[in-house]
Write a structure and sequence with these properties.
Layout (H helix, E strand, L loop, with lengths): L6 E12 L11 E11 L4 E6 L6 H12 L7 H11 L9 H21 L4 H8 L12 E5 L6 H13 L4 E5 L6 H11 L2 E5 L11 H11 L7 E2 L20 E3 L6 H9 L5 E2 L8 H13 L6 E3 L5 H13 L4 E7 L13 E4 L2 E4 L16 E2 L11
Parallel strand pairs: 4-5, 4-11, 5-6, 6-7, 7-8, 8-9, 10-11
Antiparallel strand pairs: 1-2, 1-14, 2-3, 12-13
Helix pairs in contact: 1-3, 3-4, 4-10, 5-6
């Protein structure tokens, strides 16, 4: 049947929401998502999500239109072959914005395949990649929130909510300057396990090397599960000098080529990597999992998810398939409208998250009525 399903139209949409009560670094009170809608000749509609839409909806719209020209009127499998062919061009399609958008298109195609086969997305992914492993029903998630700009009251509120919904691990974003110690003590006292995200590629004040060493020395006594994004990408050569504190580190949310992730594990010796499936192609993700298996590196992947419902649910499905390598999936709990239809369709107990069997497509977990056409050209994230 899949060969008879052909792509009629690909549309770029955005979903916006008030985000984090206006206290999140980089966001101007609202956050935007990049949503891809694919309509087929069989009236099956698939939805995908791309990370690039968070930062520049206009660039997302322009580049999606360009990529779409290669696959319009093709069957689903012809489209997959064409996209994989495009990615062989290492100068242009296999990195950056275009790769991120291709990843979102692939998510939408798998959404269509799940509907066409009348089964869940995890089964479709497993069958497509001929995985020899059984699907896992014990995918663990961690709660992610806490802005650089959060005060103690905000952080306590996030921690209380994390425990209320049945999650025992929390990751918060911190600055390495003064007053960080009180927040670390709060994390240590209020939750079973915690991690810290320094968002160095976003909040560039955290790259002060002296502050960073003071921060790592003090936090090492609290034994966080990991420290994330400790340095800007162009400063990774300094990482070897920061391992002396006996901490574990993760990195990679901004990467979308496998060689970058392989280098993080094999060259830089990071403990974990953070691929984002709305940014890294699922085909790359499959190969990355194979590579980690071949070099006997297990549970090295902590899936990054700082987007919306599609990204999160798709990440859960992928974690079910690639459970040999996936340790945790990030669950953003910051106040927004993005997850409103997710909560009724998942169950969480002891940090294990399961998707309701009634979820047949991604339209079941997003608010279709709130999707909008992209009409503006401004950047929607501020790095200053």
């Amino acid at each position: 049947m899949e060969q008879k399903i052909k792509i009629n139209q690909i549309v770029s949409l955005t979903q916006k929401s008030k985000f984090g009560e206006g206290k999140y670094f980089g966001y101007k009170k609202e956050k935007f998502l990049g949503i891809i809608k694919i309509t087929t000749n069989k009236k099956i509609i698939g939805y995908g999500e791309t990370l690039v839409g968070v930062y520049s909806p206009k660039l997302f719209k322009i580049n999606l239109s360009y990529i779409s020209s290669f696959i319009i009127k093709n069957s689903l499998f012809e489209s997959i072959r064409e996209l994989n062919k495009l990615k062989k061009n290492k100068f242009f399609f296999d990195n950056g914005i275009l790769k991120s958008i291709i990843s979102g298109i692939e998510i939408a195609i798998f959404d269509i395949l799940a509907q066409a086969n009348k089964t869940n997305h995890a089964t479709v992914i497993k069958n497509y990649f001929n995985s020899k492993f059984a699907l896992s029903n014990k995918v663990k998630i961690y709660a992610s929130a806490g802005s650089i700009q959060s005060n103690m009251k905000d952080l306590k509120k996030d921690l209380d909510y994390t425990k209320k919904i049945g999650i025992s691990t929390f990751k918060g974003r911190l600055a390495t300057g003064k007053n960080f110690l009180k927040k670390i003590e709060l994390l240590n006292n209020e939750i079973d396990n915690f991690a810290v995200d320094l968002i160095a590629n976003t909040y560039q004040k955290n790259e002060d090397y002296r502050n960073l060493n003071v921060f790592l020395k003090k936090i090492s006594t609290f034994k966080p599960l990991w420290i994330e994004e400790i340095l800007k990408t162009d400063k990774l050569f300094q990482f070897k000098n920061l391992k002396k504190y006996g901490l574990k580190f993760s990195y990679g949310e901004n990467f979308n080529t496998n060689i970058d992730f392989i280098n993080l594990i094999e060259l830089y010796k990071f403990n974990y990597i953070n691929p984002d499936l709305s940014h890294l192609s699922i085909f790359d993700f499959n190969e990355l999992n194979k590579h980690l298996g071949n070099i006997n590196k297990k549970k090295k992947i902590i899936i990054h998810c700082w987007g919306g419902a599609i990204n999160f649910i798709f990440s859960l499905y992928c974690a079910q398939v690639f459970s040999q390598q996936v340790k945790l999936v990030e669950f953003p709990i910051t106040v927004s409208n993005f997850m409103n239809k997710v909560y009724p369709n998942i169950s969480i107990k002891n940090s294990i998250c399961r998707i309701d069997e009634n979820v047949k497509s991604f339209k079941d977990i997003i608010d279709i009525k709130k999707l909008e056409e992209i009409q503006f050209s401004k950047l929607t994230f501020n790095f200053d």
